[in-house]
Design a protein that fits this description.
With 285 residues, the protein is an alpha+beta fold. The protein has two domains: 51-196, Mago nashi protein; 200-275, no CATH class. 22% of the residues lie in helices and 23% in strands. It contains five helices and twelve strands. It has helices spanning 2-14, 66-69, 107-119, 170-191, 243-252; strands at 51-58, 74-77, 81-85, 100-104, 140-147, 150-157, 196-197, 202-208, 222-224, 238-241, 260-262, 268-275. The strands form two sheets. Strands 6-5-1-2-3-4-7 form a seven-stranded antiparallel beta sheet, with helices on one face. Strands 9-11-12-8-10 form a five-stranded mixed beta sheet. The termini are far apart.
Length: 285
């Protein structure tokens, strides 16, 4: 009996700590328990529209209509689709329709972005303290990360400006550097994701009053508004979708940001127009 006890003890020791062993128990003994694995990272996505993450820049001093036209710097979706602003010709006046580039990321690249977002503190329930530097008109960068259907948005003023950052502590500086590194990583992945042309299914249209003299050297052209059923009201956003989106894109293809559109009642407007991305509402709230 002593020899048998020694053998049982040796066998139990050889099994290590992988599971709990109950010696001398009968058939009614509880089943052996396995160790509980540590919780893993969440899953990117799960929001309406399939958004995984987006990076946007807002604020700052811009001409009329430019805030409305501004697109997210990056929008990544669960199926790997990546949308970002396309190349714009540096001329005045600029084209009426901003271009959007479409690319694709692999599941491994999306997982990499999730890990990087967690390391930067952008996937946490509590927004990281990045401070508010006293930099005038620098704008705000907003990073939105969707994990397990929960949306976490973090806003950073003057990201990419400095250092030095007036009024920023050492801890806040480190938090800003982590966010900046994440945005740089996203930019590199988007740059390598492809440069296909995105065809929008919806457009936002904002009629604005024409400027009296936008540029004495460039006279705005004037055209009749070709959609009488689409009523234009100054300062009121409307959405054009479906077949109308394709027709609007054709009508605006060779127009500019200062083209004046005259309606049947004699009113004239310039239009701020931009594509609506899959995760965005028809018009901003």
């Amino acid at each position: 009996m002593v020899l048998l006890a020694v053998v049982v003890a040796l066998l139990a020791g050889a099994c290590g700590n992988a599971r709990e062993v109950v010696a001398g128990a009968g058939d009614d003994a509880p089943a052996a328990t396995e160790p509980t694995p540590p919780p893993g990272p969440g899953r990117l996505g799960g929001a309406e529209g399939g958004l995984v993450l987006s990076v946007e820049h807002g604020g700052g001093l811009l001409p009329p209509g430019e805030h409305f036209r501004r697109l997210p710097l990056t929008a990544v979706y669960e199926d790997g689709t990546v949308l970002s602003p396309g190349a714009m010709v540096e001329i005045y006046p600029g084209p009426a329709l901003p271009a959007v580039t479409e690319g694709s990321l692999t599941p491994a690249e999306i997982d990499e972005l999730l890990r990087a977002a967690e390391q930067a503190g952008l996937a946490d329930d509590i927004e990281a303290d990045v401070g508010k530097p006293t930099v005038a008109d620098a704008g705000t960068t907003t990073i939105t990360v969707v994990v397990d259907g929960e949306t976490r948005a973090s806003s950073v003023d003057a990201l990419g400006v400095g250092p030095p950052w007036p009024g920023i502590s050492a801890e806040q500086r480190q938090a800003r550097e982590r966010v900046s590194a994440f945005v740089d990583l996203v930019s590199r992945r988007v740059a390598g994701a492809g440069d296909g042309r995105y065809v929008p299914a919806r457009f936002r249209v904002l009629p604005l009053a024409p400027e009296p003299d936008p540029d004495p050297l460039v006279a705005p052209d004037e055209r009749p508004w070709p959609f009488p059923d689409l009523v234009l009201r100054q300062g009121v956003c409307t959405v054009v979708a479906g077949e109308g989106a394709a027709e609007l894109a054709d009508a605006l293809a060779d127009s500019t940001q200062i083209t004046r559109w005259r309606t049947d009642d004699g009113a004239a407007f310039v239009l701020a127009v931009r594509p609506v991305l899959p995760h965005e509402p028809d018009c901003p709230g």
